[in-house]
Write a structure and sequence with these properties.
Elements (H helix, E strand, L loop, with lengths): L6 H10 L5 E4 L6 E6 L2 E10 L2 E10 L4 H16 L6 H10 L20 H15 L2 H11 L17 H13 L3 H18 L5 H4 L29 H12 L5 H13 L3 H5 L6 E4 L2 E6 L21 E4 L2 H11 L26 H9 L10 H12 L8 H4 L9 H5 L6 H19 L2 E3 L1 H16 L13 E3 L2
Antiparallel strand pairs: 1-2, 2-3, 3-4, 5-6, 6-7, 8-9
């Protein structure tokens, strides 16, 4: 529903720092949309192109006032009625016209050859990153390099962009309270400029070597609002989640996903992307082979010395194997072990369970006070307490396998260490199973609780008032 946007309302939204992006349509100017996101407020033009909805970024608030945003959208509407093209270039020109940005650098001359613009350089860097890194990593880079604060760079030759230019932009983002966002943007821009100064690229970019090596966002505050609290759950905490996953209150796919996350201590995207074809049986042993593209270390599939990093293999103890075997019985089209129940977008393909769905499901469970990634910290703590040597957990967590400074081990040693991995995972699963056996769950009350939590999250109806019942208890 359109809202009458005022300066007071905008300042209130800016101070709230929402956790999820929200769009508000302006009640005075049709086509103007305000997006409130964790990184701040931004103005967008909503229109149509070839009959399809289209959104164009105008800029951020307070850099662009309400009056300026409405004026730009009004001019865009007039241009569209005349049949003119309204695109990112039109927005960039309009920003210069109203005094938001400086005029672009003069066009190239024989004395000044054509160099890549910001957009060309960004696309070239992302294409190169796509060749080397996981799609998820590249998508993260794309989001950082498409931040509204970088809009003033539109159309500028990258050779003319100075470290001071980018430092001011990072400072503006930091000043909005998005300290982590500013740091991550800086960590993305530095390697981009290193790529632009590489020997095979410098003729096209014109970027000098090392110009952004000292680019940094301002130092974070002592207590940063964007910093995630790290927790180390205990065995009982993990066992409670495993018991809930098995009680029948959740969908079979989600139950299996939660159980596998807890018992294998793998990253959530590795779990949701598990494939049937990657479960191998060797004698009495079932092995889960995680291909490099499903791992964080897949970004380093070729080590720093030219060696090939091996796939990550996990031998499965009895309890963990049983969870995988239940997942193998799911009806599905394709190779995914944990299939979607519906496509992410209408008409889209059916793939695997989304990792965010797994995170939300765990967060909604009673007594859950940790993230999926915190389980890896719990696993490491537990196996150290069980007497395993320091560093042994790296065999399970996919930390450092195949990367060593020893030449023989680096290039020739492919010993799989399955026995040691099985000992680690068995000690972990046995401890979790013993604690889970003591958990008693009121399943009807748990289902009611989950319905209320989901209704509150989706704002379908208010959450109940009053003290919640003890849904999960430990047997006497």
């Amino acid at each position: 529903m359109p809202t009458d946007l005022t300066q007071k309302l905008l300042e209130k939204l800016l101070a709230q720092r929402v956790r999820e992006p929200q769009d508000v349509s302006d009640g005075r100017q049709r086509g103007l949309v305000l997006r409130s996101a964790p990184t701040g407020l931004s103005w967008w033009l909503r229109t149509k192109a070839a009959g399809k909805p289209r959104r164009l970024l105008i800029g951020t608030f307070p850099a662009i006032s309400i009056a300026s945003a409405r004026s730009m959208v009004s001019d865009a509407s007039d241009a569209l009625r005349r049949g003119d093209e309204v695109d990112a270039a039109w927005i960039a020109a309009k920003r210069v016209e109203v005094g938001i940005d400086d005029a672009p650098v003069a066009p190239p001359t024989p004395d000044r050859p054509t160099r890549w613009t910001w957009e060309q350089a960004r696309d070239a860097y992302l294409e190169d990153a796509g060749r080397r890194l996981r799609p998820k990593t590249v998508e993260g880079y794309r989001q950082f390099l498409s931040h509204p604060a970088l809009l003033p760079l539109a159309g500028r030759p990258v050779a003319d962009i100075s470290r001071q230019d980018l430092a001011v932009i990072l400072g503006d983002v930091f000043g909005l309270g998005a300290e982590t966002q500013a740091t991550n943007m800086g960590n993305t821009l530095r390697p981009m400029w290193s790529f632009l100064s590489a020997d095979h690229v410098v003729a096209k970019s014109g970027v000098a070597e090392g110009v952004m090596d000292r680019l940094r966002a301002p130092k974070r505050s002592r207590v940063s609002s964007g910093r995630r609290v790290e927790r180390t759950p205990g065995i009982d905490d993990v066992a409670r989640i495993v018991a809930i996953a098995r009680c029948g209150a959740l969908s079979p796919v989600m139950s299996a996903a939660i159980e596998l996350t807890m018992l294998t201590a793998q990253r959530r995207f590795s779990v949701v992307q598990a494939r049937r074809s990657c479960l191998l049986v060797e004698g009495d042993l079932m092995i889960w082979r995680l291909p490099l593209e499903d791992l964080k270390t897949g970004d380093r599939r070729i080590g720093r010395h030219g060696e090939t990093v091996p796939d990550h293999e996990l031998p499965l103890p009895a309890a963990t194997r049983s969870a995988f075997e239940r997942a193998l019985a799911f009806e599905r089209d394709g190779d995914w072990l944990l299939p979607q129940t519906r496509p992410r977008r209408e008409g889209g393909p059916m793939t695997h369970l989304h990792e965010s769905s797994l995170t939300h499901a765990i967060a909604e469970l009673p007594g859950s006070r940790f993230s999926p990634h915190d389980v890896r910290r719990a696993f490491t703590t537990a196996v150290r307490a069980a007497g395993f040597p320091r560093g042994s957990a790296a065999l399970i967590l996919d930390h450092g396998e195949g990367r060593t400074d020893d030449v023989t081990a680096r290039h020739y040693d492919r010993f799989r260490e399955l026995d040691e991995k099985l000992r680690l995972l068995t000690a972990w699963s046995d401890a979790v199973e013993a604690a889970a056996a003591k958990i008693v769950i009121d399943v009807p009350a748990l289902r009611d609780h989950l319905r209320e939590v989901r209704a509150k999250r989706t704002k379908k109806r208010p959450a109940p008032v009053g003290k919640k019942a003890a849904l999960v208890t430990e047997a006497a």
